[in-house]
Amino acid sequence: MAARRLSCLLSRSLSSSSSSSSGSASLLLSQGRRVNRFSTAAATEELIIPPVQISHTQHLINGQFVDAASGKTFPAYDPRTGEVIAHVAEGDAEDINRAVAAARKAFDEGPWPKMSAYERSRILLRFADLVEKHSEELAALETWNNGKPYEQALHAELPMLARLFHYYAGWADKIHGLTVPADGKYHIQTLHEPIGVAGQIIPWNFPLLMFAWKVGPALACGNTIVLKSAEQTPLTALYVAKLFQEAGLPPGVLNVVSGDGPTAGAPLASHMDVDKVAFTGSTDTGKIILELAARSNLKPVTLELGGKSPFIICEDADIDHAVELAHFALFFNQGQCCCAGSRTFVHERVYDEFIEKAKARAVKRVVGDPFKKGVEQGPQIDNEQFEKVLRYIRAGIDSDATLECGGGRLGSKGYFIEPTVFSNVKDDMLIAKDEIFGPVQSILKFKDLDEVVRRANATRYGLAAGVFTRNIDTANYLTRALRAGTVWVNCFDVFDAAIPFGGYKMSGIGREKGIYSLHNYLQVKAVVTPLKNPAWL
After folding, report:
1. pTM higher than 0.85, yes or no?
2. DSSP string covering 160-210, please?
3. For labeling, which of 81, 123, 342, 497 is most exposed (least CB within 10 Å)?
């Protein structure tokens, strides 16, 4: 399935019937009762039993699933209830050492870097086909461990996962250097070589998609990998690692270690035999990763970090459409998106109308068991994030922002939060400055374009921005004035495989996806050879 914008796929999934799926997952979903809207009942109804078995909880090192060197495990949870669903191998420095040694041997001595690019592409394509074959199980496992709506995972994220690997498979045999003219009798060529062993650390909000953003370009370029999954969501990375084995990936090329950041992530970032590190997560942790990489072997680092993205609604906007798009930009994935449109700037002439309609849309949002048909919002990832969001809501109330709706917990178990809307938000309030990472919409008022550009750019972040206007001149002015890595005009969260993604300022270093992501995993070597009596120069 070709990659399309997540908003389109999600909208389609929410309106489709369960007949679009097959097998046990569809049967269970179709048996679930439709939930009430924005009510405690939505979070307290009888929960659906996930239609998938947890079969992989060990590390994958050198082609084998193995226990942690220490023998320790840590719990993986169901955020719908807070209950333990699995015990997963808990990695530490010794497990990282074993995984790096396997990756190094696979790179230095194994067949992967020496394999033709065409053969590597065939393995990536076989993996993408296996993802499509097992999409229902993967979507169910992602929902069970993460809490995101099953329909979102199945109809938006799994097709994108397969599309990303089809995309990078296409790049594998198109990576090449250049012949460079020079002054003098020399033949100069550049070689684009794999960088070596790549350390990769992925977050918990989009475990499968972030796996693809990291693993896809690294493998296409011929590298080997040690990947550390997020400690909150270790299960799907292990599942797809098994699929890579089925696709024919040689042992040691992809190694997956589960564990905490300080005990597994830090040893990976500081390892002297890792040639490159890529990290997605918070800005504060990104600083630590960068320091560890610099203090060890000065390995290059790619960082995709936090955001506080402005979503600017101009006075000429179609308000009904703008309300729906701003709602999606903030509340998608329980608000747990680094690029969420979390500062909604609305022109003063349409501000009051927008507030009333934004409040009405939030009240109608369907919150509940993410396995149930029609649910738009599941629980937050864990208790830590749940409490963090509630603290920010209290901070918004204490700073005299107007609480239009929401603001509390839904139900008595799990990590469900009411969709929350604040109006009369000021730039100096915490809810307007900090990355909340939850279902909290902050709506601010502006008078003119110069003002909103100044205020939108007055942040340490620069990951993304949204612009909603019917005027092409306004759109052109704002897209060039906003200091952000992505600006969506009259749309949001468009994530095609070919579109680069990354941030300005403290939102990161480098770009993911598209041709730009390949640069992260290649070294450029210049080769100079003298020419004797050349026919031409």
Report:
1. yes
2. HHHHHHHHHHHHHTT----EE--SSSEEEEEEEEE-SEEEEE--SSSHHHH
3. 81
